[in-house]
Amino acid sequence: MPNLTLADLSSEIEANVRRALAEDIGSGDITAQLIPAERLASARVITREEAVICGTAWVDAVFRQLDPRVAVHWQVQDGDKVSADQTLFRLEGPARALLSGERSALNFLQTLSAVATRCRHYADLVVGTQVKLLDTRKTLPGLRLAQKYAVTCGGCHNHRIGLYDAFLIKENHIAACGGIAQAINTAHQIAPGKPVEVEVESLEELREALEAGADIVMLDELSLEDMREAVRLTAGRAKLEASGGINDSTLRVIAETGVDYISLGTLTKDVNAVDLSMRLAL
């Protein structure tokens, strides 16, 4: 599936930010009201650790929605690798707006940068191979598109967005349909042209999926020897995706079997927010 771009996300970003501000500010930031409305301020945001940046458009939207008088001056862009104590951006404008928007802006930036940072780590592990590392649907509710965009900023790739843009036929689907061939044939009838992927747990199931015309076959926790044999048997008739139980120590050797894709839930679900800090000057 094609990777998401910022151009795909303009309405999504605005909606993400509206929800975040409503959640945080509600009927009004009573603490910010301690500061005179006319008071102007500046601020800078730094990172306390190395990271790959993602989320600049969400930060821009936070301050744009709060008060269009706030100016955001970026010193980095999405996809940049930054060092500890590096300044990411500066703010100028009404002090109330800067303080009211701080938490929402940093929440987006620290979360999406965490995804991008983790993805860059994994992408670096397979440099020199032909494999593409794919994300999954294991995302934060309401932030799937944002996280999937962050995946691309870290050098990895998007799998299907949801349950509507591609078939992924797993063990329970196969059992309910009466077999691999039946499931694949029905999928082609339901939505001609949609990618059809099927999960298999053995080389025999792989043969069934290939004969039935699967576009992608997910190899679920096959041995390295069986993955190599799967590549030989498939011979380009379908794309092969390795999945299940993959970690730092096994990723490279799996990539070297010749599979086309490796999917990793950890790209989006096992992340630690990047440590950021905003420093205000009046």
Automatic annotation (TrEMBL):
Superkingdom: Bacteria
UniProtKB keywords: Glycosyltransferase, Pyridine nucleotide biosynthesis, Transferase
EC number(s) recorded for this UniProt protein: 2.4.2.19
Pfam families: QRPTase_C, QRPTase_N
Pathway: Cofactor biosynthesis; NAD(+) biosynthesis; nicotinate D-ribonucleotide from quinolinate: step 1/1
Residue intervals of the Quinolinate phosphoribosyl transferase N-terminal domain: 29-113
Designated name of the protein: nicotinate-nucleotide diphosphorylase (carboxylating)
Species annotation: Ectopseudomonas toyotomiensis
Lineage start: Bacteria, Pseudomonadati, Pseudomonadota, Gammaproteobacteria, Pseudomonadales
